[in-house]
Amino acid sequence: MRLSAPPITLSFSICGALAIWAACWPATLAQPPAARQGRGRQGGARPQDTEVWDPEPKVVTPGAVDSDPPSDAIILFDGKNLDEWVNTRDKSPANWVVHDGVMTVKKGRGASNIETRRSFHNYQLHIEWKIPENVTGTDQGRGNSGVFLASTGGGDAGYELQILDSYHNRTYANGQAGSIYKQGIPLVNPARKPGEWQSYEVIWMAPVFNADGSLNTPAYATVFFNGVLVQNRFELKGETLFIGKPFYRKFDSAPIKLQAHPDPSEPVSFRNIWVRELN
User: Fold this and answer.
1) What confidence tens digit (pLDDT) does each residue in 26-67 have?
2) What pLDDT shows up at residue 31?
3) Cβ 231 vs Cβ 190: under 8 Å
4) Torsion angles phi and psi, residue 69, rounded to 5
5) Which of 50, 64, 245, 270 has the most crowded Cβ, counting Cβ within 10 A?
6) Tell me, what's the pLDDT at 108?
7) What is the DSSP letter of 61?
8) How far apart are CA 102 and CA 198, in angstroms?
9) Distance separating alpha carbons of residues 268 and 164, to the nearest angstrom
10) If you average pLDDT over every residue of the chain, what do you get?
11) How many domains does the chain have?
12) Residue 25 lies in a domain
């Protein structure tokens, strides 16, 4: 005969559960959450150990819009006059045309590149330019000009950021708008059509030379074209040349130069030019 075992009754009350939880509560509070790897304390280090309070960056008041000059900018052209510019050829007062707040290249007889009276080393440059709506020509003969980030002599000597009508106008890639002429092909082509204003925002880091004239560190250029990055800290191989290989020759600071290109197309215009020294 099989005997049935009496049922085993487990008694567990709510009060018992609360008692167990209460007993464990202080221990639970004592355990901080596990720190994420790499973010926890390192041998007793404090957050303050890696806080740097001085020197405090100086306050610069920005323009009403990003294209306006900030409070520490040097105004090179504000639409009023060419007082900050001279003719490259003989350093006489610049003779390009100023009308309705715009500066336009003077072409033809007596035409000359112009450059700033002041010299600069490292800087941030803002410049706006426009290819005329009625521009004619093709390839390099259509709205050609240039911004020489450092003018190292007469004519086209220096380091040129190309200006050209590159809106449906095919040319060699290292000679289109946004190129470091004959060296740096732009990453993309964000050119607007003729008749519309365009802009360059440039960070220029000048080359550094040793006492004997040899190169210590090369020049670098970062360029935003119409707000789009086209040169990402591009390392220049030397001065930009129309013919031949680039080379470096010693200089320290230099003027910024604008080109009066001899092509027969209608002239390029400029406005709102300012620079911030980064020395």
Assistant:
1) 444 445 555 455 565 678 899 999 999 999 999 999 999 999
2) 53
3) no
4) -70, 140
5) 270
6) 85
7) P
8) 13
9) 9
10) 90
11) 1
12) no
